[in-house]
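As a next step, we paired sequence with structure tokens, yielding the entry below.
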Amino acid sequence: MLDDIDRTIVCALQEEARLTYAELGRRVSLSPAAVTERVHRLEDSGVITGYHAAVALKTAGLGIVAIVRLSVPAELSTQLERLGQETHEVQEMYRVTGTESHVMKVAVDSIEHLDRVTRVFLPFGLTTTSIVLTTPVARRTVDFGA
């Protein structure tokens, strides 16, 4: 269970993962050593799973983002998921309920590149692909106040 200080630390690190323990301590009125201990506990318990750089896909040369949906029989799910992990264009993959069994976020540099990537998954079944036009809600931090 997270207390208010843990929640404040997690929120601060989501906004700026490079904060020093001293700055985190100032924000929650604890010593750097006490904050360090709390952050390590949050990491060890699996609340904080990593620290990442946010990459602007378009600026990095991957200007086309698409959502690819597949309906795959359960016996092929493991193979599909392995292929998703091996395909570097796949940014995220979800196993979902509903008509499709899997949904992927894919980042590519051209329509031709998108075609090559989607063809990789055709042995598992037909794909339905939607190109992302805009992202009105991008990466969102967990809000503990809700």
About this structure: Strands lie at 64-70, 90-95, 102-108, 127-131.
